[in-house]
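Tokens for chain A. Residues wanted.
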């Protein structure tokens, strides 16, 4: 029974480790699509860090954009 469990569990672990995260996939899809035509650019990330964006971050970005347009 233990061998059977390992045989089914190991491929599941390997396939889940190689999958791209949703944010990486969304960025790659955006970069590869131009004028509704999708190309295969084979984009790879050297490092990929995400951080939480708060409301104050958004306000400061919008405020600087407003001041530059004003």
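Reply:
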């Amino acid at each position: 029974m233990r061998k059977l469990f390992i045989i089914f569990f190991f491929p599941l672990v390997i396939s889940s480790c190689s999958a791209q995260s949703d944010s990486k996939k969304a960025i790659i899809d955006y970069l590869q699509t131009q004028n509704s035509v999708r190309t295969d650019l084979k984009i790879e990330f050297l490092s990929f860090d995400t951080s939480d964006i708060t409301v104050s971050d958004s306000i400061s970005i919008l405020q600087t954009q407003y001041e530059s347009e004003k």
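The beta strands are 33-34, 37-38. Residues 12 and 18 are 10 Å apart (CA to CA).
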